[in-house]
Amino acid sequence: MTANANGAIDGRPGDLESGLFAYRLEELFRTVPGPNGRAYSAKAIAQRSTERGFRLGESYLSQLRSGKAKSPSFRTVEGIAAAFGVDVHYFLEDGAAQRTRDEIDKLRMQANADVQLAAFRLAGLSNDKVTVVNELIKVLRQQQGLPQDPPDLMGADPAAT
To answer: Which residue range(s) make up the domain with 102?
Structure first.
């Protein structure tokens, strides 16, 4: 993630402070699974933050997420980080943000033992058999009202993974 002198992040317009914070906050909402395996809502994060001693309103959180609120206090940032279970440095340092992304990926894979078991069972199968299983998973996800691919995979080039 890079920002230019005008604060544009990866080609997105905006000032550096609010744009980067809003981008990283939205990234957490997109990628960190809640206890049920689905994305957290703003209400759930506000409640989790408050439960951890960092008072946070749902409407203010939504404003931070959209970039309308531009200068959260450090205490607010701490509360959001605590609610998502990430290091507060995720919002402050590029290196910490990347480490947090890596940790989120690992947590998502470990979150459900059945998912992990299914992935292990794919080992050793031919590529065409793995493709069949992936297509079946897409159908099952659709039947449960989920997108065919998790949000962080949508639009990704399958050849790049």
So the answer is: 16-110
Give tens-digit pLDDT for 31-58.
888 877 788 999 999 999 999 999 999 9
Is 45 within 8 Å of 55 (Cβ atoms)? no
Contact yes or no for 32/150 (Cβ under 8 A): no
Query: How far apart, in whole angstroms, are the C-alpha atoms of residue 50 and residue 57?
Result: 8
pLDDT digits (tens, 9 = 90+) for 113-139: 677 788 888 888 899 998 999 899 888
- Residues 104, 117, single domain; the answer is no
Q: Are residues 100 and 156 in the same domain?
A: no
Residue 3, beta-bridge partner list? 9
What pTM value is reported for the model?
A: 0.54
